[in-house]
Amino acid sequence: MRYFVQTLAAAVGAALLAATSVGAQTVGVPERGEEAFASENAILDTSIPFAIGAREARQALRGAFGWPSFQEGLVEGVYFRFDPDGYARFAPTPRLDVDVFEVICRPRTYACAARKEGLEAFLTDRGQLQVKLENALAGDQFFVSEGVSEIQVPERILQPLDVPLELLLGSGGELIVRRGGSEVSRVSLKGFSAVTAYLRWIAAQQDYSVLPRGWPVPNADGAGGAGSMTQPAAWNSPMPQPQMLAPEYASALAAGIAPATTASPVTLAAPNATTQPQATSAPMADTVSGQELRTELETLKQIILQAQLGRAAEVPDATSLPAFPPQAAMPVSGAGGKQAEPSLAQLLAAVEGLQTQLDGLQQEPSLPVTGGGAGTGAPASPVLSAQPEVMPQSPAVPPQSDNRADTVKKLDYLISDLGLDPQAALRVLQMAAKDTAQGVGAHPTTPVAAETLSTPAPLTPEPAGKPVLYQNELVDQILAELETDMMAATGGGEPAEPSVSQVTVEDYILLSRYFKSAVLPELEVMAAQQNP
Amino acid sequence: MKSAVGSGKRSPLRGVVIFFAAVLVLSGAGYSVGISARKVFLAQEEEIIPIIAGGELDDIPALMRGNLPSVTSSMLTDVPRRTKPPRMCEMPADYFDTLERGLNVPHGYDKHNAYVRKYRARRGFLNERELRAARVAWHYFEKFTQETTGLANSVGNYPSTTLWDTASYMAGLVSAYELCLIEKPEFDRRITQLLTTVKGLELFRKELPNKVYHTKTGAKVDYTNKPGEIGFSALDIGRFLVWLRICKNRYPYLANTIDSVLLKWDFRNAIDSEGLMFGAYIDKETDETVYAQEGRLGYEEYAAKGFALWGFQPRLAHRAEPFLTASIFGIQVPYDGRDPRVFHSQNYVVTESYLQDGLELGFDMPHDDSSPEWVHTDGWRAEFADRIYQVQENRWRQTGFMTARSEHNVKGPPYFTYDTIFSDGYPWNTVTPRGDYVPDHSAVAAKAALGLWALWETEYTDVLYEAIIELYDPENGMYEGLYERGQGRVAIYTANNNGIILTSLLHKVQGTILTPYTGDTEVWYTAFRDQDIRLLRNYPDPPQKDDWLPVLRHSVQEKADY
């Protein structure tokens, strides 16, 4: 009996030991799908250069799977390589071995994060850049060091960054965290600006328009008007085309929260920047003719006029309606064909929103058109839909001295966000100011506008040798027709009523946006033909 | 009287007599010369050596050449050819007591350029720990072999594979059978289904197997496992040829099936007249096939021997040149001398290719079927392998890092790393396929560690053994490795890793995996002799002595170089 008990105990012990051993072996080996290779994780086309000089190359694969291609290059002093799934490394040495920013994307999404040592940078749902520091605690002090000089940065670098802070971090140097006078961590910021541009470029599906001002993008003229870098239809790569759109980004884009519209000014890197190849699925961009352009404009005019006439009967209470329907805003980037070509419903919603705002402005005539993101301190773009909840609804009257800044903001928006030529932008402001002056005079003419009025820009195209977009006879003619039509629809040749004068500014914005997204490529071609 | 004499001298009769006498003498001389000449000529005709059909002077027409047996070393010497060892469960208990290991033979080259290594391979029965590791490794193939095709996944659940990894599955299958983990019905079922599937694979542009296939459907796919084609890899095919030869030699009843697989393939572009191997890929712009030399020092020679085992003559591919050496921890580590900037192909120095040569081919020449286990007739390969081992032991001794470097998969991006001893000008360089330096992915590769343990019986490999032998998940197989920087196990399971581990364990029991061919001739050499297919597809004739790859040696490093 005793022998039996001993044997039983030994057997139980052995079984327990074996179970423990097995358990120990299996612990910590989760089969996480996000770490497994899947072709659906491809979100980037490596044949579209991130910057001038970048090239696509083949990977030396030995295994059964992997990305067959990658892209490598040098930009802003850092070397980079990235795979179709967005995995990238940025480092100051070509071996990408030290001081490396590593970017990893969540599979099948455009949600990516860049990491270096204890620092992590990513884009928020609104497209703002945010930084996380592993070792940072409440009460820590942050410094940006460049050689021997240091400047302290506010604690809000751990919140979504505004433009000045982002520019500061992107200028290089090191980010130092101090606690009680002693240094906790020190992270090199080398490559920070390139990485943030990369994150935005991914989120915008490789649209060059989100890259910072001065970014060395390939010349669209050379790259191809014919799309010589990438020809989606005939592309014979073993790689699948980027196909997935992150749900959150899809919704964000649909809601007009384009990544680059809130955190930093959106800049067209080149006046003739092309859209990415996927966007060419919108056939209009390639094949639209002057006649089609007129037809499109007619449709748009009808929509706007109908909406205005419909609204004329009833003036809703401004406070009872949403300030600006989220659907009204179209992504400035125009990254994809779907975003670039607004649907009828979107246009109607946009018109409705414009009308609503117009009504509000009629009641508060001195309210500036551009609502700033005062809550965040970021210079919000005039695409108000990007931050509808922070748009000032209060009837506070801005001081007179703000008019110049207001005009400058408008001018900046027209030039940098919408890609208008400076003179065209001035003309838009000039027309707006003229309408305003002819109206109730509630909006005092800004100095800039006054200056413009005194020296009206010529209606003829720019002299040869300086290619100018939008300023050809066709566009001028269309704008003139549009102005005439709208005047006629709202009271013939009488001096414009306040509503008409207000609508004109917004209409120009909307139309300009429409121009950019729908007919810009055609206009580029026309401009090029006129100014070879 | 005087006048009579004088008139007699001048008589016409005398002149006639002299004339006839001269004619008679000349005729006799002519006759004698003629007779002599005739004798000479007749005598030469009688000395002509008759040409016997199939003999040395017989210029055998191509139609009949396939009937010749392949000439191996045992046919030209008195040394009997090796024999296939019994399965582990069929070995007598004293099998290893009587096994000759040549322990007293000094290391170095012999006069035939064969090499005897400083350390011997481990031999013996598997102990409990090793047997458990073998079972777990085999379980990978049990779990990840597709019922529909008989192909095994390269990496865990991901349903794709290459010929390289299919060879690893064959290695696992042979090892499992020889180690008595499975029995013959199971072995036959698996190998037959596998070979049948491989025979039915759609080839890359009707030449050779595509680089990647979907394991569930058997369709050729691209690197993202979508239907498509990539090209073919000469290295993958070379390894697959090694394992087809191992199976054919060990199990002659599979010979016809195996031959029929190869007789579908077209080798015209895989190996050129100088003996270089070529892979293929598709030009992205033109969609045309591009053939590019494939293989660098280490893998190239291993794959070349795979081709040579089937009668091809990869003379250049089997040579070490051009190679250079890098001094690392006192060892002159050989690496490929072709400049990556020119040839756009990196020269990774890893353990794996040397291990496979040692485990599967015994560092022997393809024609050698008779040398003892401790004599490696492909001498320089064994000598280079010794350096690859020694530099890793030296690193361990001088830095404390356990080192067994190889290429291996990793979980998540970048999915695969070349964890090298030397590459791109740097020692201990861990790089991704696109060239990023990723030292965090450096690891003790399980397959490399157990391969070193099997081939080098040393104190250092005992340490590697302790680190790896229990590095498994019973449900999935052996882990890929152990991270060098303390991040734990490389939590991924692959056919290659488990196949090589099983091969290493089988090597401990049976020695060199390749056994001699025991038949006379082969369908591989006799098929299509009545057509031009053999010529078009570059099928070889049975190799004769003149076709053997040359046995070379390189300078030996006498002492450590610091």
Fold topology:
The complex is a heterodimer of chains A (532) and B (562).
Chain A: H1 2-26, E1 55-58, E2 69-75, E3 78-82, E4 88-91, E5 101-105, E6 112-116, E7 119-123, E8 129-133, E9 141-146, E10 149-153, H2 163-170, E11 174-179, E12 182-188, H3 192-203, H4 220-224, H5 247-254, H6 260-263, H7 283-287, H8 290-313, H9 337-340, H10 344-363, H11 402-417, H12 422-438, H13 447-454, H14 473-489, H15 498-530
Antiparallel strand pairs in A: 1-2, 2-3, 3-4, 4-5, 5-6, 6-7, 7-8, 9-10, 9-11, 11-12
Helix pairs in contact in A: 2-3, 8-10, 8-14, 10-15, 11-12, 12-13, 12-15
Chain B: H1 2-9, H2 12-47, H3 62-65, H4 73-76, E1 108-109, E2 115-116, H5 128-144, E3 160-161, H6 163-178, H7 184-200, E4 203-204, E5 208-209, E6 212-214, E7 220-221, E8 231-232, H8 234-250, H9 255-262, E9 278-282, E10 289-293, H10 299-308, H11 315-318, E11 323-328, E12 331-336, H12 340-343, H13 352-361, E13 375-376, H14 379-399, E14 407-409, E15 416-419, E16 422-423, E17 426-427, E18 430-431, E19 443-445, H15 446-455, H16 459-468, E20 472-473, E21 477-478, E22 481-483, E23 489-490, H17 495-510, H18 523-526, H19 533-536
Antiparallel strand pairs in B: 1-2, 2-13, 3-6, 4-5, 6-7, 8-9, 9-10, 11-12, 14-15, 15-18, 16-17, 19-22, 20-21, 22-23
